Amino acid sequence: MGEPTATPAEMSGADILVHSLIRHGVDTVFAYPGGASMPIHQSLTKVTDRLRTILPRHEQGGGFMAHGYARTTGKVGVCMSTSGPGATNFVTILADAKMDSVPVIAITGQVSTGVLGNDAFQETPMVEICRGITKHHYLVTRTEDVARIMKEAFYIATTGRPGPVIIDVCKDVQMKKVVPNWDVPMELPGYRPFRRAQRAELEPVLRAIRGSKKPVLYVGGGAIHSGASEELRKFATALGIPVAMTLHGLGTFPAGHYLSLDMLGMHGTVYSNYAVNDADLLLAFGVRFDDRVTGKLSEFCKHGKIVHVDLDASEIHKNKYAHVPVHGDLTTALTDLNSMLKEEQYADLLGPGRYTDWLRQIDAWRSEYPMAVPQHAPNTIIPQYAISRLHKLLKDRGLVDKTIISTGVGQHQMWAAQYFPFTQPRKWVTSGGLGTMGFGLPAAMGAKVAHPDHLSIDIDGDGSFLMNIQELACCHTENIPAKVLLLNNQHLGMVVQWEDRFFGSNRAQTYLGAGEGKDPYPDFATIAKGFGVPARTVSNKAELDEALIEMIESPAAFLLNVMVPHQEHVLPMIPSGMTVKDMIKA
Known about the structure:
Elements: E1 11-12, H1 13-23, E2 28-31, H2 38-44, E3 52-54, H3 59-73, E4 77-81, H4 85-88, H5 91-100, E5 104-110, H6 126-130, E6 136-140, H7 146-158, E7 165-170, H8 171-175, E8 177-178, H9 199-210, E9 215-219, H10 221-226, H11 229-239, E10 243-245, E11 260-263, H12 270-278, E12 281-285, H13 291-294, E13 305-310, E14 324-327, H14 330-340, H15 356-368, H16 383-396, E15 403-407, H17 411-419, E16 428-429, H18 440-450, E17 455-461, H19 462-466, H20 471-477, E18 483-488, H21 493-502, H22 524-530, E19 535-538, H23 541-553, E20 558-563
Parallel strand pairs: 2-3, 2-4, 4-5, 5-7, 6-7, 9-10, 9-12, 10-11, 12-13, 13-14, 15-16, 15-17, 17-18, 18-20, 19-20
Antiparallel strand pairs: 1-8
Helix pairs in contact: 1-2, 1-7, 3-5, 3-18, 11-14, 12-15, 16-17, 16-23
């Protein structure tokens, strides 16, 4: 007789879920426990050698740590919470991930199946709440489905246009034991995330370039999600076409390159906006024609032909009509276009001097309207100067390419985009579409966990920083040495700027300080030290470099609280819904 066949081992739903994470290459989860998710947390304690669990101090903080992890790696960021208020604290991070196409999986506990719909303690209908802000969603009511759902969730989050998935797991499902089927087939009828544009679709792109005298590449976050940076650089440099980037496109094409126009849009450079306005051909790659880029939609690139390449077919023609629509993955499209450019029939596109007059015009705009740090009183630290000095000190130490910058949302975010040049993708982490204050610190923490050999610095404003300041405690206890450059102007700076420009400087709940003649409030350095994080406050320009170096070289998390004036405005600025003609330059 042969050896008896071993009976497959039963596992609890919680164990199956945790082992599914490991099987999908997850090494870190950001998880806050509660009654409805306790079985999962008990399972996590069994695999500490393979899976690190980080305890944030707020579920939203953990969710944005998952963002920082995902946005800098391209891998799935995983966060967990209990049911009810714990789960609803994920709503903002899911909406943010949906807007910015971030692969995040949020796993939430749910009440047991027997009381679903009975308004049991801490029950909320998470699938219904999150249906419009996730790429897909699951309510798990059978333990037998856990392995399949986890497999599908990772596939959906990372393929096609990336996005968030919520998995709401009933408590009894976590506790019941079954024999898992790890090779269960997925049930995704109609989901076809991959498409490679055909040659017949790409040939009109090159024909449009041949007929153009003033082309511009308009490149967005889709280029980074697709991993298209290298092919984009080959394409732009081979043809000599200048490149303007969206907020999320920064780093796709290297800042400082002659063809780089830096950022376009509301707070983009004058020369990028002028170039797009005058272009006779706009090559829109991985973009969605967001209103912060286009301003008044009917006037955006009004006289130019538009080529739009995007993997998400719903984006093509959504906001602007594309004269040459190309539905497909951007990396493969650029790879094929670069191969086609080597053919003899397209040799004329590569000749030197093809766009000499156009590039000279752009040079003239660049010379007339450079991005220069404004001059102020000798001892005053203005935000633009602080960011420029941070970059210079990092560059002098050879650390720029090993530094990840995150931000909150507001003036400091735009100044960071303007004055910290990015030369590589996935070094810039910011909340674009949703514009979520409180994003910067936890995102920097997630990025640092994903890249322990990198510096991770949150350039933040006092308004944004206060919204998730509690994660300093997580920095200390979990030994996550993320740094914060806090540009503290005691105000909600971007709203103040709009008050100044459009509401006669009438202050409407935008002052965050303690009052005239009083010490700056809150005392962020004291608060940070209370959380166990070293901190320093500076207000004199002569002290700034020394303080920045102390922050950079600190082996632990560090908060540098820099006092800056609230009167400074982010310029250039195209007012909302207006056109390039309405741009405020100074």
